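We close this part of the discussion by returning to an individual protein. The amino acid sequence and the backbone structure tokens for this protein are reproduced below:
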Amino acid sequence: MAQNRPTRKKTLGSYPHTMVVFSITLALLVIGLFGLLLIHAHKISNLVKENLEMQVYLERGLPETQLLQLQQDLARQPYIAVKDQQPQVRFLSKEEGAKQLIDQTGEDFQQFLGDNPLRDAFLLKISAEYGNTDNLSRIREQLRQLPGVYEVEYVENLITSVNRNLRNLSLVLLGFATVLTFVVVVLINNTIKLALFSQRFLIRSMQLVGATPSFIQWPFLRRATWQGLMSGILAGLLLIALLQYAYLQLEELRLLRDDRLLAVLLAALVMLGIGIGFLSSWRAVRKYTAMSLDELY
């Protein structure tokens, strides 16, 4: 005689767990990958700006003490880029400048001029936050007022072009990020709504025995919060694994690494998973509790 197989009793909030976590994890991973793209684009932007130099040409015959004092004054300015705790201020003597020019052109201009017409100069690298055209113009005027400074120059057209292209690129990436975030939110919301669809009759049964809305909602909200937390952590771990693999394949990519922004991105993924999971479950449960019996079919 055949025995009836025991059926598992369905409890409140016991909708498929693995499928929901897997779906939310993939959606958050897509957001994370695009977030990495934005972080690396931001770092590239900063590197490009900080590698643009400003040349401070000096009066002729300045004593060594005045050169040293001027270099110290420049190094203390807030707009000077700092690398490895060292202000990016470099002294270029006219002899060194002449040697570089001869190496580039292949001709010794000092032979037919009879003298070296170049000037001593300080080469400054400006911090990325001061790298726009207006700030650079103000910095140039400020440097021209310093004693011992003859002229201040930088490639203005190049900097204007770089800033314009970087600004356009940032707007395009920001637009894509907004659209992608909206798509992911909708995807996670629909995933949780479909998962809760199987619980609609159980929700109705709880209502019929007098359960309050908060009593019915709590198991779903608690489960959705844990699912969002788990999905955010899994997406973050996958993101770190993919990033480490990319570093192994392309060592130069480590130059664009920013641990602070990466930590912010990972925290944002976890909070996004928790927030969307919680709100989607809350909306879905409210929807099913407000439906009539005929609408549930």
Remarks:
- The longest strand covers residues 53-58.
- Residues 17-46+164-296 form one domain.
- The radius of gyration is 31 Å.
